[in-house]
Amino acid sequence: MEGVLRIGRLGRIAQLTALGAGCLALAACAGNVSNGNRAARSNDAGARTAVSTHTKTQRRTHTARAAPARKQARHKTGGYSTVGTASWYGPGFHGRTTAAGETFNMHALTAAHPTLPIPCTVRVTNLDNRRSVTVRVNDRGPYAGGRVIDLSAKAAKVLGFYDRGLARVKVDYVGPARQEASAAAPE
Predict the structure, then answer these.
(1) Domain that holds residue 147
(2) CA–CA separation, 115 and 64 (whole Å)
(3) Within-domain flag for 69
(4) Residue 98 class from Cβ within 10 Å (0-12 exposed, 13-18 middle, 19+ buried)?
(5) What CATH number did the domain enclosing 106 receive?
(6) Which pLDDT belongs to residue 169?
(7) 147 exposed, middle or buried (CB, 10 Å; 0-12, 13-18, 19+)?
(8) What are phi and psi of 104, to 5 degrees?
């Protein structure tokens, strides 16, 4: 009977050793998953990320929530006001589709802004001559550095800087604009 107990004790020791090794392996895998989650969270706090680790391939798969169809404001729009340089755009974009899905018309009072919600309206004031105009923001831009807004050719004419190309302006958020149906741009 004494021999059976020794084998039983050795069997239990072997089982405990195997169990301990298994726990260590699981802890190592858990460390990899938690490190992956931490890295994914630090990349984009707004995205929901799922991380799974496959034991044989050690491949991680990430799935993130889809971005909204239209880029929304990254700031509170109520009371938004900024001063900076405005430019205008027209002939090269006339008739093309804007970020709002409308057809760009350089003869309309419209604008492009990098972060305000689309569509919205803003009041733009030329700080050199105090002329101002309310325009519909229906596109993204400007893409040239240091500019706060891109205006249509008509808006630049109303503000009196069409010939110069650039003006120092103040931009004030007015409110949301209703979505318009896209129509062909006049020639």
Answers:
(1) 81-176
(2) 22
(3) no
(4) buried
(5) 2.40.40.10
(6) 98
(7) middle
(8) -70, 130
- pLDDT over 60 at 35, yes or no: no
Is the torsion defined by CA of 30, 32, 33, 34 positive or negative? positive
Pairing of strands 110-112, 132-139: parallel
The string of DSSP codes covering 57-71 is: T--EEEE-PPPPSSP
Q: What is the pTM of this model?
A: 0.57
**Mean pLDDT of the region 172-181:** 86
Measured CA to CA, the distance from residue 53 to residue 5 in angstroms comes to: 42
Pair (170, 93) in one structural domain: yes
Query: pLDDT tens digits, residue range 67-103?
Result: 333 344 444 566 899 999 999 998 999 999 999 999 9
Average pLDDT over residues 134-143: 96
**How many domains would you assign to the chain?**
2
Residues 45 and 11 in one domain: yes
Same domain, residue pair 100 and 168:
yes
Q: Are 137 and 165 found together in one domain?
A: yes
**What 8-state DSSP symbol labels residue 180?**
P
Q: How far apart are CA 182 and CA 70, in angstroms?
A: 16
CA angle (178 as vertex; 139, 148 as ends), nearest 5: 30
Per-residue confidence at 178, pLDDT binned at 50, 70, 90? confident
The verdict on whether omega for the bond into residue 119 sits within 30 degrees of 0, i.e. cis, is yes
